[in-house]
Amino acid sequence: MSKELCKLKKELKSDLREYILLVNQPRFVCQKCGRAANDKKNVCSPVKLTGKL
Ligand SMILES: [Zn+2]
Known about the structure:
- 23% of the residues lie in helices and 15% in strands.
- The longest helix has 8 residues, at 16-23.
- It has two helices and three strands.
């Protein structure tokens, strides 16, 4: 699965288990949508999460 999570809507409900696997250890956050993901390829405008703000 290499879709951008930002674009998922309905799919989220049916693939919730798969979705959880993509977001359970987020390292990137989408600057545009605010969605977090393990992999930068799963959000449309990834920014790396760091411990600090
Ligand atoms: Zn996005």
